[in-house]
Amino acid sequence: MxxxxxxxxxxxxxxxxxxxxxxxxxxxxxxxxLALAHAGALPVSSHSSSSPAALHxxxxxxxxxxxxxxxxxxxxxxxxxxxxxxNDSGAVLGVQTVGGSDTAAGASVLALAHTDEFVFSGTxxxxxxxxxxxxxxxxxxxxxxxxxxxxxxxxAAGGVLYSGGGDSTVRAWDTRTLECQYVVHAGVNxxxxxxxxxxxxxxxxxxxxxxxSIQLFDIANRRxxxxxxxxxxMAARRSRFFAEAAPAEGKEGYYVILHTAAMFAxxxxxxxxAIGATPDDGAALFSAASDGIVGVWRLRRSEDSDAGxxxxxxxxxSLDTSGSGDSEGDACVHSLALDGDGLLFAxxxxxxxxxxxxxxxxxxxxxxxxFSSITSSSPGPGSGSKNNVLALAVDSRTLYAGAADGAxxxxxxxxxxxxxxxxxxxxxxxxLDALAPDALASGSSGRPGGVQFWDVAGAVxxxxxxxxxxxxxxxxxxxxxxxxxxxxxxxxxxxxVRMRSVSGVAELQxxxxxxxxxxxxxxxxxxxADARLISSTPTANPIVYARFDASSDADAHPLRDTPTVFVxxxxxxxxxxxxxxxxxxxxxxxxxxxxxxxxxxxxDKGPVLATLFAVAELSAAxxxxxxxxxxxxxxxESGSAGLRETLASHRALFGAxxxxxxxxxxxxxxxxxxLTYGMxxxxxxxxxxxxxxxxxxxxGVWGGAVRDPLACLAHVVSQLxxxxxxxxxxxxxxxxxxxxxxxxxxxxxxxxxxxxxxxTAPLVARVSAAAADAPAADAHDHLFRQLVQRxxxxxxxxxxxxxxxxxxxxxxxxxxxAAQAAISVRVVPDQSLDDIAAKLRAHVTSVFDEYVAASxxxxxxxxxxDSLRLxxxxxxxxxxxxxxxxxxxxxxxxxxIREEWASAGARSGAGAGAGAGxxxxxxxPSAxxxxxxxxxxxxxxxxxxxxxxxxxxxxxxxxxxxSFFAPHAVAVNIPMGQSSDNAHLxxxxxxxxxxxxxxxxxxxxLKDIASVIE
Length: 1014
Prior knowledge:
The protein contains 19 helices and 48 strands.
């Protein structure tokens, strides 16, 4: 499969983006996000042909019929148009509506042009946005037109950009200084300038006008008329039909001499102009209008006039497009393009593109491409505005056609074979510009100042590739970085959740790769200096790597020696469960009551994107103090297979991490933010008991006469834990770290806090129900012992038992040939995983041997056939992890959490939609305030924000990463999710408020991190 290159890495700092103040940004973002969720109207686009940035391919059309060049119409069926994307990373990258001042609302990009240095976009408001091609940053906004800027043309040799406006003027801009040089006023009653063409060979500017005329402006001889005469002409002009701009203050003003114009050149608006050559007559002007005619013109200078006499236009041919389709809607040509091989392309209102051979003057083909079938709701060909081909562009090998339904269709110019189409916009594609071979710019309606840049090299050159969005720019930048707003964060999360990236399931490995490629592309799109997939284990899902360089001194040291922040996360998820009671499809983002639901939203796709957007925002604002590297793996739910090998072989990419930052934990309750400083380790075990027979047997025939593997397994499992919950493995608690009195005191204080504030939290509610009649002190003690058991004591869990019987839930007549149990052990500081694993093996083996021996030593026992064998697989999975909360990094993390949630004012409940709490998030000092000890004092107030907690779960990568990047790396786990998020269960969710504020917590932590890690 071909690679899809970025044309450039877009930087949100372009055009002077500044980071909004944290308080106002978080408040407004949270409000808008919560409104979406409460309304149940999250911006979730379906994974279909209507998704932005999707590429759909169609089979290549045949080339010209042998021995003939007669007109042909080639249309594709709807099924062909809905072919599955070959690379769905492109299919899920959305082009966002971002930024925009209040006055820019609803503005559209009407025209595009470029030089070697800049790309220019003309907008509905009359402004021209200038983008630097090398960096894709906004260089300047050019203002002057009082009506929309509907046409652009470039004189590359003269260094001039011409812009035509709805105010009947053309402005000439110096493409180096970006200053306006002069203004040209079109003829009286010309109306809007709808199209422009620079006729370099003759030094002319050609204007296509709303009044159906084509007008000529002689650039070289513009000063032939005296200034006084020009001024008198301007003063005398009073249009009876159209509002015309007043003379520009301080600018040279010129006017078009009407007797040079081709008045009534068409019987409709002149939508498009193109300069080219015909095989017989040489240089020619082509015009297209709403009358369905393509006019062909040559320049004529009167032989009887003076040498300086102005030229005029003479029509030499008319190409009638009215026979291109089946409806009257075809009688309008919106766009024109010429290739270098004598072909003229005309974009039709019907959705077709006429192809004319300029040597024979024949229409040899009409390319329809089924624009109307790109969206299933669109009507058929010839049905109106949804089909209009509003823009055409051509490079050395590709024709591009942009339509009113938001699609860009592509054909090879060599044989007119279809390449597919890009879902580029939600609204009409109004402008296209081929910047270079395989590089395309597009502009659309409803995106204030928005320009999309596409790298289509893969689609054109490799049938296994597709074009992708290279970057999305927005000219309305003064509000700062809004293409990184929280609306986009949720939109990208919706697309990511759609990918069923379940690790450990072979048939879903392609989905995992899609999810990885999506994240890589998104990282590039939001400004990463480097983003790639890395792997050193062929069977493991790839790791997504990205780097955001520090905003200053980024190249001062080799990366290997550069202090970095290492962000860890994972894109793989747990299975959704075929019979799990999900209220909405698990792989479709849904919004309810202030939460978003879907597999992976809390573990770990949501937190990963929140962290990415925080880093990208700092980078865009040039406020990122240190280099940040991302390592997002795809095997965390399957034991992090391949992680160690891949990081070891790519060690130089990650610099010298000082912080390992992750968000893969949960609050203790629902209402109070937390900071996690410890996790238990884990051991996984599989116990399998097999019979010497190779198959199940019928219990009605063999029951009581053969040995039963399931009965044996049940006995072994029963000897692991006693009825009181005590683990029966000898030495199971060996090595457990003695209790720290300071931690005990802090935990009891924490218990009082959550008992007062977290009555609805699952842990508190269940303990309260169990101790409903007990005194408060006893209930607090029960809650304390619960936390000790979950955080500081080892445990053993039997997860499930399976048998070899097919469909055991419905077939209760067989004796299984084998039975198997899955078991896990959680270990705590300072236990040895190898030691506990060895003790578990020894105990299970001993119990099994005793069972077999006992059944064979009793002479009164039944004479049973077959023998039993034990297969035991015990594997340490994750080391326990315990951080020091007194370190400067933890103090900084606590401050970031406290400041962000304090900025919200009083906290009224869990996320956006839970029950009310009674305390203000800023009412009490944190246990981790700068002057506190590691675990604070003995009062409940000392544990207000954030609560300092441990987790009972395990993450294999965290302790290993600290060890791998030793001695300076400190792991910090900042939870974003709540205790009721249902990670690994049905109806997984995350509060939108938590997600938005989690992003801001990371922003606050990283903006000042340099002083912490020095």
